[in-house]
Amino acid sequence: MQQDNQQENQQDQTLDTVEPVEHQEAVAAESLEDQVAALEAKVAELQSAVLYGKAEAENIRRRAQDDIAAAHKYSVGKFAGELLIVKDCLEMALKDNSSIDNIKMGVDMTLRNLSGAFDKFQIKEIDPKAGDKLDPHKHQAMSTVEAEQEPNTVVSVMQKGYAIADRVLRPAMVVVAKGKE
After folding, report:
1. Taking the model in full, what pTM does it have?
2. How many CA atoms lie within 13 A of 161 on its CB side?
3. Is the Cβ–Cβ distance between 155 and 175 less than 8 Å?
4. Is the separation of the CB atoms in 138 and 172 below 8 Å?
5. Residue 181 half-sphere exposure toward CB, CA atoms < 13 A
6. Tally of domains in the chain
7. Among residues 149, 74, 82, which one has the least CA distance to residue 117?
8. Which helix (H) or strand (E) holds 142?
9. Within 13 Å and on the Cβ side, how many CA atoms surround 61?
């Protein structure tokens, strides 16, 4: 009888140990399913964030392209507005041709307005003086002449040059002294 009791106790213990293992496996399976569901939700959230980021980057790129196109299209607008004043002055000078003095005054006013527009937009004259060294970045030698000056120096200016900030728009056209032979 004692043996039977021991066997029953062992069977009960075996059943007790089997039941918790099955229970643990069920809990572990539920835990894994929860983890998988959580990870899938995180993946979906990250995919959404990536799509949002791509859309935002595309919108920024498109806006930047639009801004660049508008800048190219309308960049000359302010300068053109300043030149309209110069044109008005020229028209007034030509309209009132009653005297040479009035025409001269109109042309002088036009030149002042044009110089003001140039200053406002950083357009500087390149006007070398006689004896200045030839600078191929700012001067264009139109001809050479024999002169008492050193070779490769400016003898005279045929046409002034202009630059915006540090960029040459048009080099000054100059006559250069050539070396004595």
Report:
1. 0.59
2. 25
3. yes
4. yes
5. 3
6. 1
7. 82
8. strand 139-146
9. 6
Name every residue whose Cβ is closer than 8 Å to that of residue 30 and which is 6 or more positions away in sequence: none
CA 159 to CA 153: how far, in whole Å? 16
As beta bridge partners, residue 153 has 133
Q: How far apart are CA 16 and CA 23, in angstroms?
A: 11
CA-to-CA dists, residue 86 to 36, 112, 117, angstroms:
75, 9, 9
pLDDT of 35-89, one tens digit each? 999 999 999 999 999 999 999 999 999 999 999 998 888 888 888 888 898 888 8
Contact 170, 162 (CB under 8 A): yes
- Does residue 162 or residue 2 have the better pLDDT? 162
Q: What is the pLDDT of residues 79-89, one digit of tens each?
A: 888 889 888 88
Q: Is 101 exposed, middle or buried (0-12, 13-18, 19+ CB in 10 A)?
A: exposed
**150 in a domain, yes or no?**
yes
Asked whether residue 171 is domain-assigned, the answer is: yes
CATH of residue 147's domain is: 2.30.22.10
Q: 133 lies in which domain range? A: 124-181
